[in-house]
Amino acid sequence: GAGVSQSPSNKVTEKGKDVELRCDPISGHTALYWYRQSLGQGLEFLIYFQGNSAPDKSGLPSDRFSAERTGGSVSTLTIQRTQQEDSAVYLCASSLVWREETQYFGPGTRLLVL
Amino acid sequence: GNSVTQMEGPVTLSEEAFLTINCTYTATGYPSLFWYVQYPGEGLQLLLKATKADDKGSNKGFEATYRKETTSFHLEKGSVQVSDSAVYFCALGDYSGAGSYQLTFGKGTKLSVIP
Prior knowledge:
heterodimer; A: four-stranded antiparallel beta sheet
């Protein structure tokens, strides 16, 4: 596609529910990144995919967070048993190859946990 | 670890004023430096970048110079416009131990330009 797309754009959920956030990178981009933008923390790195594998999961905040990527394209970030502190904007970015420095960002998913 | 510190906002300027947003960094390696911009209701966009010391990145009238001696990458524009109102993020890019290319961001500076 023309750019990175994310869905849903907004998600409101109740504490304790699971949510799935989707990212569709730019066609042909092999590297994919998830970031979280929250009021108190700024922008923080969560996880990175090179193809379908995630060599670095150190940024995931807890074991309630997981991510997968299939077919070297779409990625899903799943948050289980959501907590209020998970409320944030979740940003996805992609780059052409894994050593490419310029990352292209999607519009984000705004998650609100009540 | 790596970190980025940028001046806190919000910053309010009149149209045609001079803009400086300060950014300093701490890094163990030889990072690349970036300025990203987030316009209201839109996603992050790369504004400019510099990949080594003394490089100057420039775009849309904005510029920033990679200063290794002062570990700084200050953003400047000679004459701001209302359309420059946005949140500006300074970022550092470097490779992690696992080989991924990570961006470390500052907390962002909100700029409002009034006519």
